[in-house]
């Protein structure tokens, strides 16, 4: 997994609580766990962002309604523009 963090970006420390058995397994390996966690968090943030956009689109489709037959939006716009003046 590639670490895609901008090297000039200021880093912030945070902690993750894991079972001690998992920590023991992690200690046996020569892996940059911070990089792994950054990538996993970035992946999840992207997923949640895409999911939120998808949900918003679906909600918009449900709420959108068809214009009544004979509806002339240009006429309505002109009406309200002339009322503002």
Describe what you observe in this structure:
- With 85 residues, the chain is mainly α.
- Helix content is 60%, strand content 0%.
- The chain contains 3 helices and no strands.
- It has helices spanning 20-27, 33-63, 73-84.
- The longest helix is centred in the middle third of the chain and has 31 residues, at 33-63.
Give the overall shape, derived from the CA principal axes: elongated
Structural class: mainly alpha
Mean pLDDT: 89
- Please give the number of β-strands: 0
Identify low-pLDDT runs: none
Tally the helices: what do you get?
Answer: 3
What percentage of the residues does DSSP assign to strands (E)?
A: under 5%
User: Cα distance, first to last residue?
Assistant: 61 Å
Residue share in helices?
55-70%
Using the CA coordinates, give the radius of gyration: 26 Å
Order of helices and strands: HHH
Describe the main β-sheet briefly.
none
Task: Describe, in short, the structure shown.
It contains 3 helices and no strands.
Strand and helix map with partners:
Blueprint: H1 20-27, H2 33-63, H3 73-84
Q: What are its keywords?
A:
85 residues; single chain; mainly alpha; 3 helices
């Amino acid at each position: 997994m590639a670490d895609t963090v901008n090297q000039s970006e200021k880093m912030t420390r945070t902690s993750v609580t894991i079972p001690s058995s998992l920590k023991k397994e992690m200690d046996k390996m020569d892996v940059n766990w911070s990089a792994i966690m950054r990538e996993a968090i970035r992946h999840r943030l992207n997923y949640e962002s895409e999911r939120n956009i998808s949900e918003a689109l679906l909600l918009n489709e449900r709420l959108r309604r068809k214009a009544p037959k004979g509806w002339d939006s240009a006429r309505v716009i002109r009406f309200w523009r002339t009322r503002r003046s």
